[in-house]
Amino acid sequence: MARSNLAEAYNGSTEADVSGLEYPIPRISIAAFCEGADLTSAMQSAAADRRLSRAHVEIHKGGAREAARHFAQHPTPDLLLVETQNGGDGVLSELDELAQVCDEKTKAIIIGRTNDVQLYRQLIRSGISEYLLAPIAPLEVIEAISGFYADRASAPLGKLVVFAGARGGAGSSTLAHNFAWSVANTLKIHTAIIDLDLAFGTVGLNFNQEPSPGIAEALAAPDRIDEVLLERLLLKCGEHLSLLTAPVSLEQGNDFESEAIETLIDRARVMAPCVVVDLPHVWNAWTRNILLHADEIVIVATPDLATLRNCKSLLQSTKSRRTNDSPPKVIINQVGVPKRKEVPLKDFATTVGQEPELVLNFDPPLFGLAANNGQMLGEVQPKSRAAEAMRQLARTVTGRQTKSAAKGGGFSLSFLGLKSG
Question: What is the residue range of 45's domain?
């Protein structure tokens, strides 16, 4: 069975770019001294963001002089953000006081309100790492911090796309696999699928591959997880797609530590521009953690009352904790099952508070044929409505929209409920 050389493909590929690639922010200490309420609010939002989850952030009132008084008695952090209302010589005077008590290795970002190129040059010459013009948004703060700690010689973190079912049997796994296949085969982006349903995972079946016990062994000893191990575990399934299959064993539980799952996913994101996680329908510490740290979340629902309730709960939970991210995308699947009482799509959208990204009709012949053959929808019927919907979802999530879509005249499948570009 072919193994993957995914890391080599990622580093050497001209197609490695995926919208949203980011460099990780390490476990650093950050202190922010804010004079205005707007910066305080921005820093509070940034500190709560998933991208800064590994950093320790402290937010203080006051500017450079308050920072100087504070650090005269306390150790300086790895990174210091200081707001100043002054300009010109006033800023430089404040920074002179601060320099007397700060460690030379501390990086510093000054946030001011003077738009002056000469001042910027003076600050950079004096050892300031960056000067940002207020007001600033939380993501601007995060981007500036990320820029200091990015190792540009290594690959950035690939985009993490997590598929979660609002109920068991909603078809989340099937759509996750078809989405990943479309990203790999239509857009030629190197993609890895991680199947975290160790007992009942279907990625092996859907791609006609044998299950592997390796992922369970790796999670049991997270200190062993590295790129070399992952290269051995990943199964190559085409030129741009690799699979990390579940062992499909009832002897294995799902009670792993969040840190072990996080390590596994982080290593995979270094090796592939796009990582798709097929999340099992369970709710515990590590499933919640994966959802909160994903770049994109896709919730798959069916038009029934219980799923409507679960979908609304998932949306509320993730949105409240991901204020700087786009909301999860909702797919309503299996619409039109004969003799089943369904929640009308309009009522579903109103209740959960957003329109579905796409709506897929109940089509057992197509999905059943693909499942029985161990093939994807795009292989069985490439011109089918569902296959085209998966291709469009792949373009949307990866930022690879067609030119017509980018101009607002985008692809539309009104009969599926797919949103126009």
Answer: 29-149
Domain assignment of residue 20, yes or no = no
Domain count of the chain? 2
Place of tokens 């953690």: 289
Q: Across the strands, what pairs with 331?
A: 300, 358
Rounded distance between C-alpha atoms, residue 34 and residue 160, angstroms: 33
**pLDDT tens digits, one per residue of 49-106:** 988 988 999 999 998 889 999 999 999 999 999 998 887 777 888 888 888 888 888 8
For tokens 């270094």, the residue is 270
Would you say 332 and 302 are in contact if contact means Cβ atoms under 8 Å apart?
A: yes
| Triad 278, 203, 231: Cα angle to 5° | 85
Residue 228 domain flag: yes
| pLDDT tens by residue, 309-364 | 999 999 999 998 898 999 999 999 999 999 999 999 999 999 999 999 999 999 99
Which residues, at least 6 apart from 377, have a Cβ–Cβ distance to it below 8 Å? 178, 366, 367, 370, 384, 386, 387, 390
Structure tokens at 135: 């007001």
Place of tokens 């080599």: 8
